[in-house]
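SAMPLE LOG
Freezer: B-3
Tube label: C17
Construct: single chain, 149 aa
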Amino acid sequence: MRLAVLLLMVMLGACGPKGATGPGAGSAAAPKTLYDRLGGRDALIGLVEDFLANVAADRRIAPFFQGVDTQGLRQKLVDQLCELAGGPCKYTGRDMRTMHDGMAIKPEHWDAFVEDLKRSLEKFKVAEPEAKDLLAIVEAMRDQIVGAK
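STRUCTURE (predicted):
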């Protein structure tokens, strides 16, 4: 149960692109953030809801999520992804290492988690550049979650 929650939180714990800053930023058309390219908050909500359904149906990792406050988890994931993708949200949850401490998350659990996310990205036909950028954000959390002690 805790592993599933932690895995979800891990995927959202890394730093993502925040848009252009510094001289000249905003003088021309500023590059869109990943948040904007993904479609904003509503798109993230849909993606997270589908992803959580995938996780709940995945026998490899579903037990880690049993008894978890699904609505609370959904909100934290949306906020974390939103913030990491350069959106206006603020993630207020714990850091990924602390969140996953003692869960004994193994590489195969992580792989299942990422596979479930990829299925949601494919279902929503997220373009390859955006999918790769989001997956890179998630992958950056791997070492904080897998085998966290």
